[in-house]
Write a structure and sequence with these properties.
PH-domain like, 8 strands, five-stranded antiparallel sheet, about 40% helix, single chain, alpha+beta, about 170 residues, three-stranded antiparallel sheet
Length: about 170
């Protein structure tokens, strides 16, 4: 699961969060595999081209093969750019922050008091099943929309537990 919970080891003098979670989209194709896939596809496309090597048919087919390879490269490259989304949620005793880094939509920041934050899940959302949101400071923000349906359900449980733990730590 592309979720990593971190419990920072900090002294009381440092302003380190009590709990921290990093979220990112799952990547099934690594960079090395991307190169292997493009090279393999290029070889498979060029193999039938050997039959028309030296004939005018080659020049008629070549642009379509180039467009197909370039289109595949562009689609995979764009998928990698979309995969650079990163969400960082940090929970202190007196505040909770969410940093959302998106290469195309920019950077978004949200902050609230963890005592008043509500974690909500909408299992029947028509666009995103198990839609998880955080509500606080008169604003509702989404979290983990790029995760799978099951991962968002687990994230909801983990967020609820983490915020409850921080509230209990403040009260004692």
């Amino acid at each position: 699961m592309p979720v990593e919970w971190i419990t920072p080891n900090a002294t009381p003098e440092q302003d380190a969060p009590l709990k921290q979670v990093h979220l990112w989209p799952y990547r099934s194709l690594l960079r090395r595999d991307f190169v292997i896939f493009i090279a393999g596809t290029l070889m498979l496309v060029l193999l039938p081209m050997l039959a028309v090597l030296g004939s005018p048919v080659l020049w008629g087919l070549l642009p379509f093969f180039i467009i197909a390879i370039a289109g595949m490269w562009y689609a995979l490259h764009r998928s990698y750019k979309d995969g650079e989304i990163l969400e960082d949620l940090s929970i202190w005793q007196d505040r909770i922050t969410l940093n959302h880094h998106d290469p195309r939509k920019g950077h978004h920041f949200w902050e609230a008091n963890p005592y008043w934050v509500q974690v909500k899940i909408d299992p029947h959302n028509e666009r995103i099943p198990n839609y998880v949101t955080l509500k606080g400071n008169d604003r509702e923000v989404e979290i983990g929309t790029f995760l799978s349906e099951d991962e968002r359900a687990v994230l909801y449980d983990e967020l609820t537990d983490a915020i409850r733990d921080v509230r209990n730590a403040v009260q004692t």
